[in-house]
Design goal:
- The protein is mainly β and about 110 residues long.
- It is about 0% helix and about 50% strand.
- The strands form two sheets. A six-stranded mixed β-sheet has the order 2-10-9-4-5-6, with no helix packed on it. Strands 1-3-8-7 form a four-stranded antiparallel β-sheet, with no helix packed on it.
- A hairpin with a 5-residue loop joins strand 5 and strand 6.
- The radius of gyration is 13 Å and the shape is globular.
- About 30% of the residues are buried.
Length: about 110
């Protein structure tokens, strides 16, 4: 059974940083392209970043230049480092085995003064 668990969310002031983590059981995340998504209130989930099996990361959209994604193969953990956070980054962040229906439960990020 595949299970993904995100952690690291919280409340942060604008300009602050957070690092989200995602660990998997029942799946070796290093063998798959993994993805981070964000879902803001009232919106659909949107892609934030991907990390492929070669550990090549790609950040898309509004996170470009501020976010970075990576994977630690020694611990089997996927990361999303978010810097210079803005209120519009607020939402629930999910990790996903890309192109599958395997999602984590999400972790809430709130950027507010």
């Amino acid at each position: 059974q595949v299970q993904l668990v995100e952690s690291g969310g919280g409340v942060v002031h604008p300009g602050g940083s957070l690092r989200l983590s995602c660990t998997g059981s029942g799946v070796l995340i290093r063998d798959y392209t993994m993805a981070w998504y964000r879902q803001a209130p009232g919106d659909r989930r949107e892609l934030v970043a991907t990390v492929d099996p070669d550990n090549n990361a790609n950040v898309v959209g509004s996170g470009e230049g501020r976010f970075s994604a990576s994977r630690d193969d020694t611990t089997g953990t996927l990361y999303l480092q978010m810097n210079s956070l803005k209120p519009e980054d607020t939402g629930v962040y999910y990790c996903r085995v890309h192109y599958t229906n395997f999602w984590g439960q999400g972790t809430q990020v709130t950027v507010s003064s």
